[in-house]
């Protein structure tokens, strides 16, 4: 299947990571390989790329399967340390994390990421994981649902929606994305002046909760710093204000330590230029932050 995903801030990532022949890199969110395969071209056959993704389906995008310089591991990046120890005994010049989900997952995974498609309420990046969106919607308490919609989606009607879900699920369990869209429509009529459909925020919040995205980010950050060789760089693209804050605060605290281990290369986050946002609207909320290990 061809990819529907366009890599975000590709030129900027390549500029900061500056992959050169013979160097080794880690793309911890390989997706369709939009960034990883470009890095691979630049490091040539003498360099190595460790490509990680929680979603096993992306292995179709792993080109040159016989090529020993691209190692693909289907795992969660929160296990980065273990993955690297087992599979990548090399001097690591750069690590990329391009967070969230890919357009392929949104449009063609069949896992209920999009409110425009009627699919099972799943939302897992990895089908090996037990927790699904249906489990959260059908079993979490009122307080937990409100927290998820508020904290991860900044959704204004979090309380009303959580109450509606609990009322509806007593009669019939939620099974599909359209069951959830129906509940959202009952508490919040889409006003066409609103740029973003209300379901966008609710679906984003649920996806973040199902995949424990902020927790995994917090877990991987110190591991990534440890793994980098001196002079190596860590580049992170985030799409959510809270996610960006986690990255920003982590980098700031490390850079201000007594004997700082890193220096920040992006005083302000790098954002896409207008033409990129025009061509790829998904890039509109992207923020890139990069550090260098001292
Ligand atoms: C935004 S996409 C990356 C797209 C890729 N850079 C490209 O241009 O083709 C994010 C990818 O990271 C994966 N992912 C998200 N969280 C993950 C995690 N904790 N561990 C491993 N992979 C994860 C998703 O399955 C998805 O394929």
UniProtKB/TrEMBL annotation:
Keyword Flavoprotein: no
Annotated InterPro entries: RsmH (IPR002903), SAM-dep_MeTrfase_MraW_recog (IPR023397), SAM-dependent_MTases_sf (IPR029063)
Pfam families: Methyltransf_5
GO biological process: rRNA base methylation
Keyword Methyltransferase recorded: yes
GO terms of molecular function: rRNA (cytosine-N4-)-methyltransferase activity
Keyword set, alphabetical order: Cytoplasm, Methyltransferase, rRNA processing, S-adenosyl-L-methionine, Transferase
Binding site for S-adenosyl-L-methionine: 33-35, 53, 77, 98
Subcellular localization, as worded in the UniProt entry: Cytoplasm
EC number: 2.1.1.199
Known catalytic reactions: cytidine(1402) in 16S rRNA + S-adenosyl-L-methionine = N(4)-methylcytidine(1402) in 16S rRNA + S-adenosyl-L-homocysteine + H(+)
GO cellular component: cytoplasm
Superkingdom of this protein's organism: Bacteria
NCBIfam families: 16S rRNA (cytosine(1402)-N(4))-methyltransferase RsmH (TIGR00006)
Its job: Specifically methylates the N4 position of cytidine in position 1402 (C1402) of 16S rRNA.
Family named by the database record: Belongs to the methyltransferase superfamily. RsmH family.
Protein name: Ribosomal RNA small subunit methyltransferase H
Organism: Candidatus Kuenenbacteria bacterium CG10_big_fil_rev_8_21_14_0_10_36_11
